[in-house]
Amino acid sequence: MPAEQSMLQPRCESPTSQSNPSNLSDPEKGLADDMSCLTCMGARSKGVVAMSSPVVLITGALTGIGRATALAFAHEGARVVVSGRHDDEGQKLATELRNLGTEAEFVRTDVRHDGEVKNLVDETIARFGRLDIAVNNAGTVGDPGPAADVTTEAYQAIFDTNVLGVLLSMKYEIRAMLRQGKGSIVNISSAYGKVGGPTASVYVGSKHAVEGITKSAALELAGTGVRVNIVGPGPVETRMFNHFAQSKENKANFLDSQVPNKRIGTPEEIANAIMFIGSDKASYIVGASLAVDGGMIAD
């Protein structure tokens, strides 16, 4: 993708599609341009994806926020690589994305393992020739409980996915993007990446780590054309949040006491934020943590 082209804005390839002030005085020429662009749009809607469409890689893409993000990018014409640990769900999602008219692939990946993450990025480059936007969303919350009861196994299960997984993903994504001279990485943290949370000490610690790692990498890469940022969701209607809340009563109490907006977020609302900060519309945003949490950390 040429450096001057904006991500998520596939270029119309028609020779008459370029903006031309003279069209204002030539209605017939302006109409021709409009029809030319509509032709391109129609072609894309019928499954012809422009080679200039951005290539987006999403880890933890099979459910919740990751799935919503994959669908959102596909609707905008991006070519999408989704990853996760379950083949059946992954292939089903890839098919669903292709049915929207885009190109999509599933690569089975456990982000806790260096070799599998390297293969994920290598497969993306082999298939599409580049990597424009990476969304590191794979994560786990574990079981709630007091800090005094934390086990080594519980710590490793959360940190290996939430922290090591992000580090390994960035390691290979950054290398690919530096070779291109451009790219955007979005790491998914949490509102709990900035505040404490009772009965969630290990999860909270892992998200604080993601915030620090992301900001450090962003400073290292500033000026290279590769941006790294964070999206920090608050409570979102996902299987993971419902598992942590454990009951409808706990969920309602949390929203009432912790979220000024008094409602739970949707995966689609988080996906919209990810798409924005990952795109060239956010080209001057570097090392930022975008809270999408209904006001949870506003004080």
Set down the secondary structure blueprint:
Blueprint: H1 27-45, E1 55-59, H2 64-75, E2 79-84, H3 87-99, E3 104-108, H4 114-128, E4 133-136, H5 152-180, E5 183-188, H6 201-221, E6 226-233, H7 239-245, H8 248-258, H9 267-278, E7 289-292
Parallel strand pairs: 1-2, 1-4, 2-3, 4-5, 5-6, 6-7
Helix pairs in contact: 2-9, 4-5, 5-6
Distance between the termini: 41 Å
- Shape estimate: globular
Sheet with the most strands, sense and barrel status: 7 strands, parallel
Give the count of structural domains. Answer: 1
Number of separate strands: 7
User: Strand order across the biggest sheet?
Assistant: 3-2-1-4-5-6-7
Residue stretches low in confidence (pLDDT < 50, at least 5 long) are: 1-6, 9-47
Overall SS class: alpha/beta
Number of H/I helices:
9
Radius of gyration: 21 Å
- Under the CATH scheme, the architecture is 3-Layer(aba) Sandwich
The CATH top-level class label: Alpha Beta
